[in-house]
């Protein structure tokens, strides 16, 4: 998997992304739709009822800046099914990353491994924060900081302090 990371990161760095592209257009451009989406509002309702397991598919560096409360870091380039905590395959699992591109790939792996109820957070943590929902830092304290992945992708983060 690490051998694939460099070409993927290079691709996302070199492919032009128009400022006019909406998040929806961006996700249509890079995702296949193989993992169904859940909106931030739908996730918030489920989260308040404690009905989901949240898996953050970003890097540890991104996760430490901030993440959605109660999310488990599973990573992207170092993702390993065998390191997941003991999660029943019938649980509601929501994967997310910055916008929803990396998380779709991890969602596909989970589905292939037999997890039945996997969804991808539409717009990722950026949309979560843009909507005004809270994020926490590595100590679990509320923060306005969000790792913006790169200056190119940061344009979709409209609410919060961008960290690189």
Describe the structure.
The chain has helices at residues 2-14, 23-30, 40-48, 60-65, 102-112, 124-130, and strands at 37-38, 53-56, 72-73, 92-96, 117-121, 135-136, 142-143, 145-147, 161-163. The protein has a single domain, classed as Oxidized Rhodanese, domain 1 (3-Layer(aba) Sandwich), CATH 3.40.250. The radius of gyration is 15 Å and the shape is globular. It contains six helices and nine strands, in the order ααβαβαββαβαββββ. Residues 1-20 have low confidence and may be disordered. InterPro entries: GlpE_sulfurtransferase (IPR050229), Rhodanese-like_dom (IPR001763), Rhodanese-like_dom_sf (IPR036873). This is Rhodanese-related sulfurtransferase.
State the gist of this model.
This protein is α/β, with parallel strands linked by helices.
């Amino acid at each position: 998997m690490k051998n694939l990371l460099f070409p993927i990161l290079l691709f996302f760095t070199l492919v032009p992304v128009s400022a006019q592209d909406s998040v929806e257009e961006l996700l249509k451009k890079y995702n296949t739709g193989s993992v169904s989406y859940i909106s931030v509002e739908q996730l918030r309702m489920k989260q308040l009822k404690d009905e989901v397991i949240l898996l953050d598919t970003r890097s540890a560096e991104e996760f430490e800046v901030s993440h959605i409360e109660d999310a488990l870091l599973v990573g992207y380039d170092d993702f390993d099914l065998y390191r997941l905590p003991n999660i029943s395959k019938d649980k509601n699992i929501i994967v997310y990353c910055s916008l929803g591109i990396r998380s779709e790939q991890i969602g596909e792996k989970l589905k292939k491994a037999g997890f039945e109820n996997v969804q991808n957070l539409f717009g990722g943590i950026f949309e979560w924060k843009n909507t005004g929902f809270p994020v926490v830092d590595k100590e679990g304290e509320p923060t306005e900081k969000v790792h913006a992945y790169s200056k190119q992708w940061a344009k979709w983060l409209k609410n919060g302090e961008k960290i690189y």
